[in-house]
Amino acid sequence: MGLEWRRELSMFEIARGWFRRSVFKTIRFLKHPRKLRQSPARRWFARHFLDKRVWKPTQHTLSGGMAVGMFITLQLLPIQTPAAMILAAIFRVNIPIAIALCWVSNPVTVPFMAWLEYAIGKWVLAL
Q: What's the total number of domains in the chain?
């Protein structure tokens, strides 16, 4: 009788439950004070990425996240998302907004963005 209820769940529901449990275990592991004292990298990660303020859209974090995302849009495609995450964490602004706005340069807008990057670079080098 213990496993009969599992047969009624879909594979998606089982996978979703497993994923949520593993994410919560990982966060609990990362936030444990003993683990945080062991490594400076973990301390930095917890202080910047696990802070609830950078995930909630307030006026300050939303505007800062938009600024970081639009600044990172001018970078090359492979480094946009990691750079947006790191800069948003450093400045303690909204991380999801920064990531979403860094993808403004989708394949349709890339030619215009490439021309704009070239023009800005040419202007900066002419100074």
A: 2
